[in-house]
UniProtKB/TrEMBL annotation:
Reactions the enzyme catalyzes: guanosine(26) in tRNA + 2 S-adenosyl-L-methionine = N(2)-dimethylguanosine(26) in tRNA + 2 S-adenosyl-L-homocysteine + 2 H(+)
SUPFAM superfamilies: S-adenosyl-L-methionine-dependent methyltransferases
Gene3D superfamilies, per the entry: Vaccinia Virus protein VP39 (3.40.50.150)
GO cellular component, one term: nucleus
Protein name listed in UniProt: tRNA (guanine(26)-N(2))-dimethyltransferase
GO biological process: tRNA N2-guanine methylation
Region (Disordered): 1-42, 185-212
Source superkingdom: Eukaryota
Sequence similarity: Belongs to the class I-like SAM-binding methyltransferase superfamily. Trm1 family.
Length: 295
């Protein structure tokens, strides 16, 4: 018997033809790349003297309806600044009393160190002159904290429109929002750095000759990515103005805010919670505010 053998045969292919089912690839030069649509540009909003950029979809929260609230806040700070300055010159505010006593004691002690045989009455007179000079100079710039600053619009308006504001701490939990605050401050021409090398705003204990109206009105914004309650409590000094404008009830933030505001300071609270404050669900109002709505 002759064994049967099989032979593999190949068929000739005509140039330019392809085998059915085969996959062909176009040359790299002929590859078509998908075009990506550029991200929509943020919308620029102008309010008062501030300019802010709002990303698409309001990713950094901006409430247009609150423009009247922000206008009132600016007006309130201006009135507070006038009252604060009057109390400073009269020496009746807590800050004025502390600053004048410190200045008087410091001047008296220096005089006694420089002239050991100086009479006590003369040293007291030198201290009194220093106290009068401090109270005659403008008060130190106001320190402000805006909790939950979002786009930073309110902080920027304070810096641009209230002459007596010196430093503003703007807090946000979301890093994207904090970056937006810094960008908007730069866009509006507000500095993000303290005006003095030691990192502190100009104060009443500076040399009165250097405390001109122009030199002491250098407002800056300190942007912090942090829980506003911790930022209020961890600050090294109380704030002259504490501004709360949460989206909803401000009740969770009131304890920290009251502890953070200085004596004779100003506490600004906005409650966008009318459905609870003036609604029919009295139990919710009681749980949030410890009170019942009045109908």
């Amino acid at each position: 018997a002759v064994p049967l053998t099989s032979k593999s045969s190949t068929s000739a292919m005509t140039p330019g033809t392809t085998t059915p089912g085969a996959v062909t690839h176009a040359p790299a030069d002929d590859a078509v790349t998908e075009t990506q649509q550029p991200a929509p540009a943020p919308v620029e909003v102008k309010e008062g003297l501030a300019r802010v950029l709002i990303p698409e979809g309001n990713k950094v929260f901006y409430n247009k309806a609150q423009v009247n609230n922000r206008d009132l806040s600016v007006a309130a700070l201006r009135c507070f600044a006038r009252t604060r300055e009057e109390e400073w010159h009269a020496g009746t505010s807590s800050a004025a009393k502390r600053a004048s006593r410190f200045a008087a004691g410091d001047a008296k002690n220096r005089a006694l160190e420089e002239t050991p045989d100086l009479e006590e009455e003369a040293a007291l007179s030198i201290g009194k002159e220093r106290m009068d000079a401090v109270l005659a100079a403008p008060p130190p710039p106001m320190s402000v904290i805006e909790a939950m600053a979002a786009s930073g619009l309110r902080s920027i308006r304070y810096a641009k429109e209230v002459r007596d504001v010196g430093s503003i701490v703007a807090t946000e939990l979301v890093p994207t929002a904090a970056e937006s605050i810094a960008e908007n401050a730069t866009l509006s021409g507000v500095s993000l750095r303290p005006p003095r090398e030691d990192g502190q705003p100009r104060g009443a204990l500076d040399d009165p000759e250097t405390m001109t109206q122009e030199s002491k009105r250098e407002a800056f914004i300190d942007v912090r990515t942090a829980d506003c309650r911790l930022a209020m409590l961890a600050h090294n000094a109380a704030f002259d103005v504490v501004d709360l404008d949460p989206y909803g009830s401000p009740a969770p933030f009131l304890d920290s805010a009251v502890q953070a505001v200085s004596d004779n300071g100003l506490l600004c609270v906005t409650a966008t919670d009318m459905a609870v404050l003036c609604g029919n669900n009295a139990e919710v109002c009681w749980s949030k505010y410890g009170s019942y709505p009045i109908h």
